[in-house]
Amino acid sequence: MTKTVCRYSAVIRILCVLLAAVFLSGCAKQELDEPELLLGFSQLGSESAWRIGNTRDIEEKAEQYGVSLMLENANQKQENQIAAIRRFIAYQVDVIAFSPIVEEGWDNVLLEAKDAGIPVILVDRDISTENEDLTRCHIGADFYREGVEAAEYLIRKTDSEGMDHVRIVEITGTEFSTPMQQRQAGFMDTIRDDERMEVMESVNGDFLKSRGAECMQDLLERYGNDIDVVFSHNDEMTLGAIPEIEKAGYRPGEDILIISIDGGQDAIDVLKEGKINCVVECTPMLGSALMETALKLKAGEQVERLIHPKEEVFSDEQDLTKIGPRGY
Ligand code: GYE
Fold first, then answer.
1. pTM, whole model, 2 decimals?
2. Taking CB atoms and a 6 Å cutoff, what residues make up the pocket around ligand 1?
3. From ligand 1's centre to the CA of 248, what distance in Å?
4. Looking at the structure, do residues 46 and 136 belong to the same domain, yes or no?
5. 46 and 56, same domain (yes or no)
6. Are 77 and 156 in the same domain?
7. pLDDT at 305 over 90
8. CA 28 – CA 255 distance, rounded (Å)
9. Cα separation values, 321 from 147, 238, 261, Å
10. pLDDT tens by residue, 230-252
11. Which helix (H) or strand (E) holds 147?
């Protein structure tokens, strides 16, 4: 009888040990599976190949870095972005990132994030605020430099073609956005002292292909043969404008010089065909820098205040066969 009890208790002890082992290994697994970081990201929309490439890159890099991503697309509306940031705060994400569609109007919601102790990263575009503490870091291109590069290309081209009067039309991006303001400022500041340059008109194309086409149609109707150069703030609007130039009987890249910004695959293909003269690169591949910065913030480490990716200029001055696939 005693022997049987002993044997039972030994079996029970072994079972308990096994159960504990299973339970503990379950816990350890759960710990491993739990993401290190929950990141809320508000994307501003999907207006261009650049934006779509940017969203895809952020999704892919989140996966690679083991970051759990809550992604919301604001469909070009600031109020949607503000609502998304409020949802991220309510959800108590570890870090918030967003690409602000315009520069003004963020202070209130960012104060709420600050009060909740959630660090905020600006991706791509910047904001305008008196209170620098509302965000921790900005990861995005140097848009002013892009405008300067576009103008410097034009000055070199003007020299090499021996043009003495250059009449320019500018198709700008979304009003009050950082790239629109900075690209324009960089371009204007660089051509200002060059007496050959005349900007006949700046029109707003909102970074959209359809608007680029409409703007170009209208500009051609009003200025026709007088247009020497189109400076367009992104590839999408450029790709909308080119067929309109052809329909009006001009050769883009020859009769009218075309300068664009972004460097997506479609625009690079058209550059290779000779219908665009220069594309200043603006890379949408900001995902790795975003994940690394967010992980550092979660770990309580210091981060750089401003991170500019390295970018190039592609133009008819180079051997274009060397440009590799763009990935967006
Ligand atoms: O150039 C344009 C896009 O903010 C840099 O937004 C970005 C701009 C980009 O839609 O294509």
1. 0.89
2. 47-48, 50-51, 124-125, 141, 179, 207, 234, 236, 261-262, 282
3. 27
4. yes
5. yes
6. no
7. yes
8. 68
9. 25, 21, 19
10. 999 999 999 999 999 999 999 99
11. helix 143-161
319 domain-assigned: no
Q: Are residues 188 and 228 in the same domain?
A: yes
pLDDT digits over 23-45, tens only?
Answer: 444 444 444 455 689 999 999 99
Tell me: do 164 and 241 sit in the same domain. yes
For ligand 1, mutation pick of 98, 282, 286 (most atoms within 8 Å of CB): 282
Ligand 1 center–CA 12 separation, angstroms: 66
Ligand 1 atom nearest to CA at 177: 4
pLDDT above 80 (res 22) = no
Residue 229 lies in a domain: yes
145 by Cβ neighbours in 10 Å (0-12 / 13-18 / 19+) ranks as middle
**Residue indicated by tokens 């629109």:** 180
Report residue 316 as tokens: 């008819």
Q: Rounded mean pLDDT of the chain?
A: 93
Shared domain check, 72 and 56: yes
Q: Are 326 and 265 in contact (CB under 8 A)?
A: yes
Query: Which atom of ligand 1 sits closest to the CA of residue 284?
Result: 5
* pLDDT for 128 beyond 80: yes
Same domain membership, residue 299 and residue 247 = no
Per residue in 174-200, pLDDT (tens digit) is 999 999 999 999 999 999 999 999 999
Mutational pocket test of ligand 1: of 204, 207, 285, the residue with most ligand atoms within 8 Å of the beta carbon: 207
Q: Which amino acid is at 277?
A: N
Q: How many domains does the chain have?
A: 2
Pocket of ligand 1, candidates 44, 183, 234, 311: which has the most ligand atoms within 8 Å of its Cβ, to mutate? Answer: 234
Picking from 244, 267, 282, the residue at the C-terminal end of a domain is: 282
